[in-house]
């Protein structure tokens, strides 16, 4: 059990692991599993993501499948708000809204329950890594289609070399726990 009085791992970025050629050759994957396995490091990473929202938390945190679920649920708990999943197709049991979007190597679809959020609810969108930004931007569009107000999108890691921030819609603030 994590001792709330113990110091958190201040250097949580040191717990990230690079995995070369995953999921395909030429990709340097940022693996967050060592961070998740370290209670103090994970707590520090969540504290980093929560800091801007402590004074005025959103109605809910929305996490993108799958690692956005891990971070989003922990962040929602830290902020004392609900968690809403945005999933890949066919994973939600009730009526859903869906949005198809293009990827650099094909297309994909995101879904969420039609009744997941009240109209106009301020939400914080969370994912693990900002690479090209396509999935995060699609999730913003899906939330806006649902009627939510996306106050910001937040990622644990932003890969600056992929220049997603330059293509980002400035209407929605974009926050990163770590920019590399």
Automatic annotation (TrEMBL):
Coiled-coil boundaries: none
Swiss-Prot/TrEMBL GO biological process terms: adenine salvage; AMP salvage; purine ribonucleoside salvage
GO cellular component: cytoplasm
The protein's Enzyme Commission number: 2.4.2.7
Compartments where found: Cytoplasm
Primary location recorded for the protein, binned into one broad class: cytoplasm
Reaction(s) the record says it catalyses: AMP + diphosphate = 5-phospho-alpha-D-ribose 1-diphosphate + adenine
InterPro entries, per database record: Ade_phspho_trans, PRTase-like, PRTase_dom, UPRTase/APRTase
Assembly with partners or alone: Homodimer.
Function: Catalyzes a salvage reaction resulting in the formation of AMP, that is energically less costly than de novo synthesis.
Listed name of the protein: Adenine phosphoribosyltransferase
Organism, as annotated: Pseudoxanthomonas dokdonensis
UniProt lineage: Bacteria, Pseudomonadati, Pseudomonadota, Gammaproteobacteria, Lysobacterales
Gene: apt
């Amino acid at each position: 059990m994590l001792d709330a009085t113990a110091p958190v791992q201040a250097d949580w970025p040191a717990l990230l692991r690079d995995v070369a050629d995953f999921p395909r050759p030429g990709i340097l994957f940022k693996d967050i599993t060592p961070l998740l396995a370290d209670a103090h490091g994970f707590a520090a990473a969540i504290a980093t993501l929560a800091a801007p929202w402590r004074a005025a938390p959103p109605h809910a945190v929305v996490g993108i499948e799958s690692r956005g679920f891990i971070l989003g649920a922990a962040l929602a708990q830290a902020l004392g708000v609900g968690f809403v999943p945005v999933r890949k197709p066919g994973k939600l049991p009730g009526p859903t809204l869906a949005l198809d979007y293009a990827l650099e190597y094909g297309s994909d679809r995101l879904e969420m329950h039609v009744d997941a959020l009240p109209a106009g609810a301020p939400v914080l969108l969370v994912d693990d890594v900002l690479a090209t930004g396509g999935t995060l931007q699609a999730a913003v569009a899906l939330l806006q289609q649902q009627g939510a107000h996306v106050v910001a999108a937040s990622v644990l890691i932003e890969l600056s070399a992929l220049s997603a921030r330059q293509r980002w819609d400035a209407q929605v603030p974009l926050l990163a726990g770590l920019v590399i």
